[in-house]
Design brief:
alpha+beta; Ribosomal Protein S5, domain 2; binds magnesium ion; Heat Shock Protein 90; 607 residues; binds adenosine-5'-diphosphate
Length: 607
């Protein structure tokens, strides 16, 4: 009989393994930087080209590799970090699986130069993606330099799977940011397409946060610390006002390794309960230190998932520690209103606690507009003093009137009054009576649809609708976000943003689209980028369409915004003028119809 089972040749096995370890340039960067840290480097430089697709170059000043070890380093399961089962149970290094270099070499062209700190002369190693590893002596100063060219050149399936250069760049940046957060004592430099994106000197944790997050956020971080016999928990919590619309700014480290763990993240989220508005997520950096024997990091090749011996205990400890430090810093509201009965439609206003309500821009845009004459509506004072409003004011109905800017440009609304018999319910839905029956409209989704169509039209007209800000806003972005702003620059201008890029991560905002609600100008850009980022994983769209969606979602009136009768009319008019009025840009329904026939049937009427 013919034998049909055979052992795969090593280079093929490596290619298969590479699929699990190295999914994209960022994964290669992660592995190489981890190797540098394991080799006790004090400084690491990462250089990439084209989002890492054509080049990833990592240079460190660590221990280096000897000639003999160099021959082995690129073989699968070759590692200097563990040798026994006991070692596997007690991992002290970032690497231990011995497969990163083999995987990288299987799918790219690699050249490594290194000199072991005890060796006389250095070594050069070349791998060409096939089975050959060439090792020669060559002089080299110190540490290790590894160049990875044309990742996935021999695995087109994987190569085609890669996203745009910008997206890959952003993933690389995220990896570097994580390392920078957890290893403040290491100097890190990151150069992308010849531009220095990040350069940080060895520093304290606080200083590192300042450089990575910017002064404003760093100042708003509350440090915390809790140590028990089995674990230590330290980190920084951002005040609720800094909450973000996504989970991207949540950093969890276990024994200095960035990990993903929904449970622990949830514990933090839970501790912030009631301090955050719906749909917001806290920003935090959390370092867990546990005896390596009590955790298993060998769950997945990426080493980002871990198993804890007692996850429940860790959950409870994170929850109580975070709660405690939040309350110590007086972020928890003194007074909470939960009774929907008593407060009626004001209830939504009260769901956000006083601490965030004072900062809540929706409270002051209303105020701002009440006093504004129609002509100065286009000039917004961006740093308007926050209007403080006592709870009694609100209970007694001294609520500021609402005149969203979005409707102010429609002067014909007066005539349109009562054109559609309509009512707003729960500050959320609009009931409209029509010849054929009735309709329930989701006000946010409706406005989103209107703005979306308007923005798409604007992109085609190329004539921006911008309102000048009285005081330009200086906005600090992460390098990843600022790359997005750069790439969307012409589209953002079309939309009505007037921006200047200032330095690698600072944006100066002079003007915003006319549709943006007053008071939101501080964060509309960041909100749009957050949403834009979020959509990357859920929808496959052209940038301009994605931007139009993110913008309309973030600029639209929200559920909870009270509307005046003429605003309701204006909204309906604009909605019915849309090309596709009844589906929001995200595909959810805008309206639900109920025909007279259906109503009659429900009431058992025959006519
Ligand atoms: P692992 O990190 O899991 O051990 P790798 O494939 O990443 O596996 O690396 C294989 C070995 O090569 C490491 O165990 C280490 O001895 C050596 N090595 C890799 N990169 C470096 C570096 N930058 N400096 C010193 N030694 C390195
Ligand atoms: Mg490694």
């Amino acid at each position: 009989m013919v034998q049909i089972i055979k052992i795969l040749p090593e280079h093929l096995a490596n290619k298969i393994a590479a699929g699990e370890v190295i999914q994209r340039p960022a994964a290669a960067v992660k592995e190489l930087v981890e190797n540098a840290i394991d080799a006790h480097a004090h400084s690491v430089t990462v250089i990439i080209k084209n989002g890492g697709k054509t080049l990833i170059h990592v240079i460190d000043d660590g221990d280096g590799i000897t000639l003999d070890d160099a021959r082995l380093a690129f073989h699968r399961h070759a590692t200097s970090k563990i040798s026994t089962y006991e070692d596997l149970e007690n991992i002290q290094t970032l690497g231990f699986r011995g497969e990163a270099l083999a995987s990288i070499a299987a799918v790219s062209q690699v050249e490594m130069k290194t000199k072991h700190h005890n060796a006389e002369i250095g070594v050069k190693i070349r791998c060409d993606g096939e089975n050959t590893i060439k090792v020669t002596e060559e002089s080299y100063t110190r540490g290790t330099s590894i160049q990875v060219k044309n990742l996935f050149f021999n695995t087109p399936g994987r190569r085609n799977f890669l996203k745009s250069e910008l997206t890959e760049y952003k993933h690389v940046y995220d990896q570097i940011q994580r390392v920078a957060l957890s290893y403040p004592e290491i100097g890190i430099k990151f150069i992308s397409d010849d531009e220095t994106v990040l350069q940080v000197q060895p520093s304290s944790q606080q200083e590192r946060l300042r450089v990575l997050f910017g002064e404003k956020l760093a100042d708003a971080l509350v440090p915390f610390e809790e140590r028990t016999d089995i674990l230590s928990l330290t980190g920084f919590l951002a005040k609720p006002d800094f909450a973000r619309k996504g989970r991207a700014e949540q950093y969890l480290f276990l024994n200095r390794r960035f990990i993903l763990n929904r449970n622990i993240n949830h514990a933090v989220f839970q501790a912030y309960e009631n301090l955050l508005e719906k749909g917001s997520f806290p920003v935090f950096v959390l370092f867990l230190t546990i005896d390596p024997k009590k955790v298993d990091v060998n769950v997945h090749p990426s080493k980002m998932e871990v198993k804890f011996e007692d996850e429940g205990a860790i959950y409870r400890m994170v929850l109580s520690t975070v709660r405690k430090s939040l309350s110590m810093h007086d972020l928890i509201p003194a007074m909470r209103f939960n009774s929907t009965q008593r407060l009626g439609s004001l209830d939504d206003e009260f769901k956000s606690p006083p601490s965030s309500r004072q900062q809540n821009p929706s409270a002051n845009w209303k105020e701002l507009f009440r006093s504004a004459s129609p002509t100065d509506k286009t000039i917004l004072k961006s740093d308007s003093p926050t209007v403080m409003r006592t709870a009694t004011d609100m209970v007694h109905g001294n609520l500021p009137e609402s005149i969203p800017a979005v409707f102010s440009e429609y002067s014909s609304v007066e005539e349109a009054r009562d054109k559609y018999p309509a009512w707003q319910i729960h500050n959320k839905y609009i009931l409209v009576s029509s010849d054929a029956g009735m309709m329930i409209i989701d006000q946010h989704a409706a406005h989103e649809r209107i703005l979306y169509e308007r923005v798409i039209a604007r992109f085609n007209q190329k004539e921006p609708h911008s309102q000048q800000l009285l005081f330009p806003q200086t906005i600090q972005l992460t390098a990843g976000d600022s790359a997005i702003v750069k790439s969307l620059f012409p589209l953002l201008e079309n939309l009505g943003f007037t921006l200047k890029l200032f330095g690698p991560t600072t944006v100066i905002l002079d003007g915003i689209p006319t549709d943006v609600r007053p008071g939101e100008e501080h964060h509309i850009l960041q909100d749009i980028i957050d949403k834009y980022n979020e959509d990357e994983f859920t929808v496959k769209l052209e940038p301009r369409e994605r931007l139009a969606k993110s913008f309309s979602c973030k600029a639209a009136i929200k559920s909870g915004d009270p509307l005046k009768p003429f605003e309701i009319q204006s909204l309906l008019q604009q909605l019915f003028a849309c090309n596709i009025p009844f589906v929001c840009p995200h595909g959810r329904p805008v309206a639900i119809k109920l025909s007279l026939a259906e109503l009659d049937q429900k009431f058992g009427r025959t006519s």
